[in-house]
Specification:
This protein has 1 helix and 8 strands, in the order αββββββββ. With 170 residues, it is mainly beta. Strands 1-2-3-4-5-6-7-8 form an 8-stranded antiparallel β-barrel. The longest helix has 19 residues.
Length: 170
């Protein structure tokens, strides 16, 4: 059954409002002062990636670099909050993701995507963390590798699951 047009148009606004409210949740009790987390990720914005996260009392800023096939570069920048502090913490975030494709016989392709990761973080050891996230993604702009390809942009929300393991350093 199809939803009425007004409900379909309001869905992204409602999701955005819910994420904004979650981002203003209180700081995690497990965090104390600024620190860095380094790690590896599988899935999500790339098949394989490296993560650098600056952790503050109020949340974190994450930069992830990765690749899907070693002919592209995937870059994600996300602000995250970790509500429900403890050994298991929730993850909610909001940011941007871009993919730059370098095909051998075509032009460079670009994609800009809004990204909202939602998930859980497990404190495995004192300064080690395992993350399980589902990034809710929506394409904002695309420059295709084929200049004659005028396929319209897909505006659906696309979930992409991923896992990461991170080490904390102060």
């Amino acid at each position: 059954m199809r939803r009425p047009h007004a409900v379909r148009r309001r869905t992204p606004v409602l999701i955005g409002a819910a994420l904004a409210a979650a981002l203003h949740a209180g700081p995690s009790a497990a965090q104390s002062g600024p620190a860095y987390r380094f790690g590896l990720s599988i899935g999500g914005v790339s098949t394989l990636g490296v993560v650098l996260e600056r952790v503050y009392d109020w949340g974190s800023f994450e930069l992830m670099l990765g690749t899907w096939s070693f002919r592209d570069l995937s870059i994600s920048a996300v602000h995250k909050q970790y509500p429900f502090g403890g050994q298991f913490e929730g993850i909610v975030g909001l940011g941007l993701w871009t993919v730059i494709a370098f095909p051998p016989d075509e032009n460079v392709g670009l994609a800009l995507v809004a990204r909202a990761p939602i998930g859980i973080q497990w404190r495995v050891a004192d300064e080690q963390f395992a993350n399980l996230e589902v990034g809710i993604n929506r394409a904002l702009a695309v420059r295709r590798t084929d200049p004659e390809d005028d396929t319209p942009l897909n505006r659906r929300l696309v979930p992409l699951p991923g896992v990461a393991y991170r080490w904390l350093t102060r």
